[in-house]
Design a protein that fits this description.
With 87 residues, the protein is mostly helical. The protein contains three helices and two strands, in the order ααββα. This is Sodium symporter small subunit domain-containing protein.
Amino acid sequence: MAFKDEQQAKAYWSENLSLMFKLLAIWFVVSFGFGILLVDVLNEVRFFGFKLGFWFSQQGAIYTFVALIFVYVFKMNALDKKYGVDE
C-alpha cells in the first residue's frame, strides 16, 4: 500500500478498525445476546417452525457471520477506493 502521507495511513487504519469493531459488535450481539442471553424471550416466537432463540443459537449466528463477511468486503473495497489504495 502506498499512502500519500502518514496522516492518510492513520485515517485509513482508524476507519478500518472502526468498521471491524462495529461488525464484531453486531456478531457478538447476535451470537451471544440473541443465542444465549435472550434465548428465553426469543423462544416464544416461531421461525420456520423452530423457536427463534434456538434458531439464532444454531443457525442465525452463522448466517449473520457470513453476511458480515460480505459487508466487510464491500465496505473495505469502498474504503480502499476512498484512500486510493485499491487494486
